Amino acid sequence: MADYCDLAPTHPVHQPYHDNEYGFPVENDDALFERLVLEINQAGLSWLTILNKRTAFRQAFDGFAIARVAGYGEADRERLLTDAGIIRNRLKIDATIHNAGVILGLQSEHGSFKAWLNHHHPLPLNDWVRVFKRTFRFTGPEIVNEFLMSTGYLPGAHREDCPVHARIVACRPAWADSSR
Question: Residue 13 in 3-state DSSP?
């Protein structure tokens, strides 16, 4: 069976994500939040569906500005539930709003969401899953694994013979950086 490194480079939607984002370290908290929200919304769906809806997600969630999303009220929930451009699942929408509030708390306590992730690194996947389940909503093992791989905290986003792998290693992702 072909994997992402085989299929993505010839695909008009997957290729930009595969070549320029997947597995690279993410520094910005709003970008980390976006990745978490997209992974949560992918549950039960294809990644292609999520990538195709990414622009609509950005618009619907105010560019994934954490403080803005954390402040969403019932009118925003209803707006999101009627937005055909995104995944209209109440549990996922509620988790997004709740998780934004949690990240605000993490930022207050640790300085940033990224600093909170760095504080817990390195952990094996099972421990990461426990930490995420204690901290966030709608974060099962697959969501946590993909989030951490996609943001450079766990290895495995690309095969070692994939040309993108070497570019990622050069960026010193958390999983490859022994100084963290």
Answer: coil
